[in-house]
Design goal:
- This protein is 66% helix and 0% strand.
- By secondary structure, the protein is mostly helical.
- Helix 1 packs across helix 2.
C-alpha cells in the first residue's frame, strides 16, 4: 500500500506579483510618462529629477529607486515611445490588410503616414518628439538600442516605398526617399498646432487636421494624384 503524497504541488507559470510589486510598476510607468511630458515641454537639460518626482507626487529621491540616473530615465522614455509606436503601427497595417487584402501601395503608405502623424502630434504624443530632439543626450550604448528600435519601426515602410518606386510613383531611390520623408514628417513637430475653429486662412496650414497633413504629404511625395490611385 502506497502512502498518499501530501506535498503541495507548485503552481505552473510565473508567480503572481505582489501588491507592492504591481505598485512599483505603476510608479515606474508614472515616472516615464511625467518625464516624457516635462522633457518635451522644457527640454532634457532644463528638467530636474526633482520636478519629475514632484509631478507624480513622489519624494525627490524616489526616481533613483527605479532608474540609475536621469539619463536612464530619458532612455526609458524613448524605449517606451518606440515600442508603443511599433505595436500601433503593426495594428494599423494588420487592420488595413484585413479590411482590404489587395490594398494599393499608396493606400499602405497613406496608413503609415497617418499613423506617424498620430505618433508625432496626436494624443499622448510626448514620447517620440523627445526621442527626435534629445537623442544626443544618450550614451553610445543607449543610442544603439534606440537605433535598433527605429530600424524595426522603419522596416515596415521599405517594401511599400519599393513597390511605389517600381510602379514609378516614387522617383527617388528608396533609401534616400525614406530619409527625406521621415525628415519632412518629423519636422512637423516644430510648427504644427491643433486645429482652431477661429483659424483664418493664413493660419489654416498650421492648424490643419492630421488627415489634411497626410493628404498633403502623399501629394508631395508621390507622382500619381490620389484620385487616380486609390
Amino acid at each position: 500500500m502506497t502512502t498518499p503524497d501530501t506535498t503541495t504541488k507548485r503552481a505552473r507559470g510565473r508567480p503572481k506579483k505582489t501588491e507592492d510589486e504591481r505598485d512599483d510598476g505603476n510608479r515606474r510607468q508614472a515616472l516615464i510618462s511625467a518625464a516624457a511630458q516635462l522633457f518635451k515641454l522644457k527640454g532634457y537639460d532644463a528638467t530636474s529629477t526633482r520636478e519629475i518626482a514632484t509631478k507624480v507626487g513622489m519624494q525627490a529621491g524616489s526616481p533613483f529607486y527605479h532608474f540609475g540616473n536621469k539619463q536612464d530615465l530619458l532612455l526609458a522614455v524613448m524605449v517606451e515611445g518606440m515600442k508603443q509606436a511599433i505595436a500601433r503601427q503593426h495594428r494599423v497595417l494588420d487592420a488595413l490588410l484585413l479590411q482590404a487584402p489587395h490594398t494599393t501601395p499608396r493606400a499602405r503608405l497613406q496608413a503609415l503616414v497617418r499613423h506617424h502623424f498620430d505618433v508625432l502630434l496626436g494624443p499622448d504624443s510626448d514620447f517620440i518628439p523627445v526621442m527626435l530632439y534629445e537623442w544626443r543626450s544618450l550614451n553610445p550604448t543607449q543610442s544603439q538600442a534606440i537605433t535598433a528600435l527605429k530600424d524595426d519601426y522603419e522596416a515596415a515602410w521599405i517594401p511599400v516605398l519599393q513597390a511605389l518606386h517600381d510602379s514609378g510613383d516614387l522617383r527617388a531611390p528608396v533609401g534616400l526617399a525614406r530619409l527625406m520623408i521621415f525628415g519632412a514628417l518629423n519636422w512637423s513637430v516644430q510648427w504644427y498646432e491643433a486645429p482652431l475653429a477661429t483659424a483664418n486662412k493664413r493660419q489654416a496650414a498650421k492648424h490643419a487636421t492630421l488627415d489634411d497633413l497626410t493628404a498633403a504629404a502623399l501629394d508631395l511625395f508621390l507622382m500619381t494624384p490620389a484620385a487616380q490611385s486609390l
